[in-house]
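Anyone up for a design puzzle?
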């Protein structure tokens, strides 16, 4: 019965990718709403950009956690694949919007990707006891 098992593994991997990609805008929008309505931050400014960068980190971490937690097998490979997707997306954003944001914001976005994926992978893989 290797056929149904492989299909299940494939579907879980696909679900993991969809959840990871959906988590990014969902967490980002929730963070933006919280920043505006709960914390009272206005649009624009250095403080708002720093808070938005923090929410982007949380969104990336949540996506990585969801992907690794949902994957049936090869969790590290899923994390590496998500790292590549994040990196390509962030580089595309950095290139196309380079004049819209300060350099520290763009560098922070790119530099935080390894930490986002590593933290999501580390927390999702579970604790091992000796």
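Challenge accepted. My sequence:
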């Amino acid at each position: 019965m290797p056929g149904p098992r492989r299909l299940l593994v494939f579907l879980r991997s696909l679900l993991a990718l969809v959840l990871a990609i959906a988590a990014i805008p969902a967490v980002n929008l929730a963070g933006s709403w919280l920043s505006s309505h709960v914390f009272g931050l206005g649009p624009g400014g250095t403080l708002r950009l720093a808070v938005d960068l923090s929410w982007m980190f949380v969104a990336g971490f949540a996506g990585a956690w969801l992907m690794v937690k949902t994957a049936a097998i090869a969790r590290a490979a899923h994390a590496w694949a998500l790292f590549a997707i994040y990196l390509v997306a962030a580089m595309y954003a950095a290139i196309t919007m380079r004049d819209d944001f300060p350099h520290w914001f763009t560098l922070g976005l790119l530099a935080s990707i390894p930490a986002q994926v590593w933290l999501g992978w580390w927390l999702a893989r579970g604790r091992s006891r000796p």
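A detail worth pointing out: The chain has a mean pLDDT of 89.
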